[in-house]
Description:
Domain RRM: 8-89
Strand order of the largest sheet: 2-3-1-6
Main location: nucleus
CATH topology of the largest domain: Alpha-Beta Plaits
Protein name: Nucleolar protein 8
Shape: elongated
Number of helices: 3
Pfam family, one: RRM_1
Radius of gyration: 25 Å
InterPro entries: NOP8_RRM (IPR034138), Nucleotide-bd_a/b_plait_sf (IPR012677), RBD_domain_sf (IPR035979), RRM_dom (IPR000504)
Amino acid sequence: MKANRETKRLFVGGLGEAISKTDLQNQFSRFGDVSDVxxxxxxxxxxxxxxxxxxxxxxIAEADLKKCMSMLNKTKWKGGTLQIQLAKExxxxxxxxxxxxxxxxxxxxxxxxxxxxxxxxxxxxxxxx
Length: 129
């Protein structure tokens, strides 16, 4: 039986320039099911790689996440020193959640207003009778 797994988004900093998605997929798939790897390279004005980091989506149990962090964080690997942590929620993701909750709240309010209107109309009809 597999432990309860949750999809987590990891930030992996300190990567070497020559890192590939396959390298990261192989390294992290030992701990869980990797569904997506996004490598980002920040360059200076001359076009030289200044920072290389990645975001990894992984379905992982809490115990395996702790093992992954303790085994890989601050280790030297393929020309860099890994810095692993849970990724912060992106601004765009927060906006989607906020807009979805606002739409849900608006829908609930509309339902309540409609129900209240029907209730008042039915009371008015009963009073006329």
